[in-house]
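Researcher: Quick sanity check before group meeting.
Model: Go ahead. Protein one:
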Amino acid sequence: MRLTSLFFFLLPIVLIAQNYDEELDNIVAFESNIASKKIDFKTNLNTANYDLKYHKLEFNLDPSSAYLEGQITSHYVAKEDLNQVVFDLTENMNVSDVYHLYSGALLNFVHTIDDELIIDLPALQNAGVMDSLKVIYSGNPVSSGFGSYEQSDHNGSPIIWTLSEPYGAKGWWPCKQDLNDKIDLIDVFITTPKFNSNNEENIAVSNGLEISQITSGQDKTTHFKHQYPIPAYLIAISVTNYLTYNHVVDNNGSPFEIVNYVYPENYDNANQSTPITVDIMNLFSGLFEEYPFSNEKYGHAQFGWGGGMEHTTVSFMGGFSRGLIAHELAHQWFGNKVTCGSWKDIWLNEGFATYLSGLVIENFDGFESFTSWKQNRINSITSQPGGSVYIIDNDTTSSRIFNGRLSYSKGAMVAHMLRKELSDAIFFESLQNYLADPDLSYGYAKSDDFIVSVEETVQVDLTEFFNDWLYGEGYPTYTIEWSQPSENLARFVINQAQSHWTVDFFESKVTLKLNGTNGENITTILDNTYNGQEFFQTVLFDISDVEFDPYYDIISKNNEVVLSLTSNDIQNEVSISPTPTNNKFKIIKPRNLTIDSLIIYNVSGQNVASRKYSKYIDVRDFSPGQYFIKLFSDKGLIFKHLLIK
């Protein structure tokens, strides 16, 4: 009966973990598949000499056809003297005209096989001067093969949708493709037939706030305005016969809407699934800060592939599971407000989005479910001996960017281990400060920027932590040796081996759970900084066994806990007196026992003093507190407590 009860108690936890793993696998598979179609992009240094300020994006399309007509107006400031401006645009798109907006002059341009649109300016544009260009173009983006602009159908109704991460934006509009410049403000105008061939109304979706829908004859133009900095890959559009419904987030008296755009055939199921978004929004806002785009909207738009994509203010969704909703919403803070400064730093997007999905499990499902979630992340990470969270240059042109084991799971667990390193309060404060950092907020951050920001909050050098867990590869395997050499005293020795040569030692806080012979238990945290490190702990019960990392807070594998036997007879032959003391203590021992030397440790396991044996040991210079003494005798090691008042 007890076994049956335990099974039914654990079953929901197991199912929650399995469901999340399936959701994460779908997210990773989707984003990796998308990336694999867009791996040939290299940073275009020719687009780095100007600063984009504004885009007006005007699209004319019919969701029953892949053909697109566009007019893109770009306002920019020269960062150096310019006689040309370069945009990224796939070579198969047809540029008909380029205009200098202020003068109205028609400009010369070259569209190269390297996907560069090179525009000759009418005169030298001096550094610091703003100018504006309009590009008129058309074509079939699908034929580029990037998968960034898709035309298909659902239940017999046509749909157009885009997905540009990481290198797909240039597949359907002239832009600055790389992560070096966010556009300060965009207006998006989408003109479509008002009704599709099934006489269903076409509904357009894009970033920001919907400003208007204007019908002219058989066509309808929908205008969206987004007034926050945004990179090209997060700009998106979609058009189909959506049904819409809203949820309202109170937002401490400044409410905003969550707008859901769903297929009519999925309306009932979606309407049952999406209300949890409000609860997740409130959780994230409480832990971090107010939703970054609350004066516009948040939204979901259903689209034709599995997984999801976190376009700013509107995530494109292949389904509406809680895990997917949480992951894409998390990106609005980690990825959209603060965007990874290069694809090498993608963990700042995906690792944190994955971890925030774990926080949903922790807060909504409880401690045991969260522990199971962490265990599954660790199992995935340690399934191979190598691999760092940080990505090397060569791997930014491959689907390695979206590696589920490293960018997602290991990135998430590095975030969790940082939380354990700092404490909950300091961890969340550091992330709040990171998101609010004026040098990073609504801009870009690289891993070193993140580290500096956190260090400014915690006032602790975290170089070793990040060198091991972020930049280094692999994981540790621990051997924990423990003993209870005398009444109320436990001793631990920690050693580790590393799975990969890039890390010589993983510094970490190690959690041990000490279980007593009569059902007692306590948890202790040991700050392990080197092999062979000894720790001592006051324990007011007889220990039956020791559990290593019982809550799965450390990335590790194949760990072993070993009982080390010591002779209690020797321990009982020696005593120290007085304790407590504020002056000195006496070592009392039998004449036939020889003590050569001793080491005094503090409660953190640090060696604070080494002494040759003397009958009296002076401790007047010691700070008040609890200490442990290891005596080296001719009959073995002897361990004692010492309290200094």
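Researcher: Fine. The other one?
Model: Protein two, sequence then structure:
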Amino acid sequence: MESYIIVILFTAALFCAVVISLAAKRSSTTWITGTATFLAAFGGFFIYGSGFASQIDFFPLTILLSLMASLGMFLGRSDFSAVSGLKFFVTSGGQFCFWLFHFLALYATASAALTTIGAKLLLRLRLLLATHGDMTIIYGIHADSVSFGECLAAQRNGHIPIIFADSCAESDFEGRIAAMGGVSLGGQSGDCPSARLLRSLGMRPGKRRFTVYAMKKDSIQNFRYAKKLLKALEERCIQARQTSLIFKGEEEMDASGLLASEEKYGYGSVTLFDDPKLAARLLIQKFPPWETISFDEEGRAREDFDALVVGFGQVGQAVIKSLVMNGQFVGSHFSLTVFASDCQIVSGSFSSFTPALAKKYDITLRSANARSEELYDFLREHKERLKYVVVCIGNQKLNREISRELAQYLDRIGSRAGVYQCSAQGVRFQGKEGAPAVDAPIYSPEILATGRMDRMAMVLNHHYCGGNGLSPQENWERCDYFSRVSSRAAADFIPAMLRAAGRTPERVGEDWKLSEVMLENLSRTEHMRWCAFHYAMGFDTMDPETFAARCVQYRREVEEKGKSTINVSKDMRNRLHACLIPWEDLDQLSKEVNEVTGSRVDYKDLDRRNVLALPEVLQKGIEEEERERQRRMRKNAGQ
């Protein structure tokens, strides 16, 4: 009786071990399953090959029967009669080998089946979990988007479900998506989101946030996906403020058409990006131009800002615009020189889309190679003044070679200018020999996730609106797309304002009592930044004749209709703005606009409001970070 108990116990223990091994992670069982499959196949060929060869003289039939019987082992079939005539299999040891090989075959089959069934169950479980809390959808499955998803998942500690959608997804990324706790949607759901799909994901009107990153390489596909998803969201009656869209596209795409307004349904937040602009913005964030100059106790720059850009392709032009937007300070002269062998050949689009940039700023284009004598002569002549060097030739290997050569030469001649590499993949800075390189990819949460920046931009916009009785959220919802982009640019510049004021983010909340001179200098700097932003966006100064004509048209509409929709100082269609003038001339412009419209606008005061709002803006960002930290702590405690 005891022997039966021992058999039962050992059998049960072995069964539990098999089940546990089958339920383990696939990465840890792959080699076990592979070994079992090889041994079972080899054993089947030996067992049935020997058995059928002893019974049948026709060699081809023996091979066919052996193959069929061996394959049958993986389906749970066995034929002991085929080997019963052999002496070895009459023994206990032979019978043990016979059934061991059959067990290994069945184990390999069960492992594959359980992996498939388990994957489906896991997919259903993850979809169920995705129906609760905020959710993120990433459209487009490729190396960059999956890496971005991994960073996002690590940053949020699994707090927000991530769903990947792509009908043409490569299976190579399935394991990485599963490892981060994400879900992959293929087939029709991957490219054609429907109201039914949103319902299955638990999307309904309420407080749940829904963020979409459209990251396909083809920007047209991103735009189409965003439009289809928007239709599905409207069918589900999802509120605009619940949604955010960040999508890769071209500048001429109608991003404003996807943004919600009082007249039409749309996304609550829309951010358009392309790789060159993303790389240029990342460059400014990682290696700020304002860190290369010093400021006095009244917020005036003590030094000029001189920069060199090597390369004039899409990335190079985006870098130039970003440096212009972020390199304007009271007391400092901005100067930028571009070296590229094809400068004059490809400058047409640059000068046509941003006609005022070269006229308003000290920007020099030189048609010379990155290794030319002319470039090295320039370095020697400007070694004392040069603050910032960016290499963006396009080829990463060549970028590194040129950067290394320039950095070594600048170090030799005693220049302190840093040499930064910028490409559509990211930015890189290599310090002195032996120092670790600083690398930052463009597809990262810190550059693509716009939630914190938008909340800070919202507060800035609210102060710009000047206490009109609406909340910051309500003013933001009434904001057009371009005004939001402008507010985001102002939020990006906050670290520069703090640097000029000699404050840290922590100190601002306690001490933002500015002297009149400091406030004036920071406000002038803000106006310079605002002008640079508009020039980089293709604006030009509205001439007096156009301004006068718009004033006449404004008065006529008021007389005929009782009101006018014309903004006399801004013409968005032709990208003209009357405020693109020196700080000293703003008072006269304010007076002229007030005489025509009867308003009480003070254009200088708008810049001062942005400066005075910094404590509240920064507090908003700090509060949001604290809320996110608390959410993660509660999540971890629950686990």
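Researcher: One line on it for the slide.
Model: Residues 1 and 196 are 61 Å apart (CA to CA).
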